[in-house]
Specification:
alpha+beta, about 180 residues, 4-stranded antiparallel beta sheet, about 20% strand, elongated, 3-stranded antiparallel beta sheet, single chain
């Protein structure tokens, strides 16, 4: 958890990346190393196969630890993105909420089925780590929480659930008769 200022507390929401990121494509170097180890394991199976299994388990464990430690935290004043393994290298990036002018949620068909998506925040200036949040689990829930904080409490209410004070009055009926020139 990052060091938050007292003016930012309480934490309003925490979003994680979806578990589907565990199955993303590995680096080319790791792929080549595993393939070489697999070929060697076919010809000399005893010690090489054990080493290959240990290598795959260690890689899987590191990927799982990285996934578990990645978070996006929404406070009253900013959005903070943390990633990296806490015992080693971590990165923290933040964006003040008063800089956000809009937000977009994108979901593919697979993202809708598995409930993940990308949230793009519109803000001036470069904020590469916070501007696009990829593979966010439950993106609509987090998006509505961001909208609620940035744009006000009635922004995410359905018209049927909104209080009477937030409903816009109907437009007046205009007279449709043609006017005569004076």
């Amino acid at each position: 958890m990052p060091a938050l200022l007292p003016s930012e507390l309480p934490v309003l929401a925490i979003a994680r990346r979806h578990w589907v990121v565990l199955f993303r494509k590995p680096s080319k170097l790791l792929t080549v190393a595993v393939l070489v180890m697999a070929v060697i394991a076919v010809f000399a199976p005893n010690p090489t196969l054990l080493f290959l299994i240990l290598l795959l388990c260690a890689g899987g464990y590191l990927r799982w630890r990285t996934w578990r430690s990645e978070r996006v935290i929404l406070t009253r004043r900013r959005i903070v993105r943390l990633h990296g393994i806490p015992e080693t290298t971590t990165t923290e990036a933040s964006l003040r909420l008063d800089r956000i002018s809009g937000a977009v949620v994108e979901q593919t068909v697979l993202g809708k089925l598995l409930d993940y998506g990308t949230i793009q925040l519109e803000a001036p200036g470069p904020h590469p780590d916070v501007r696009e949040l990829h593979f966010v689990a439950h993106p609509h829930r987090f998006y509505l929480q961001i909208r609620n904080v940035v744009f006000g409490t009635a922004a995410d209410l359905d018209p049927d659930d909104a209080p009477e004070s937030s409903i816009t009055a109907p437009l007046p009926v205009l007279d449709r008769r043609p006017r005569r020139p004076h």
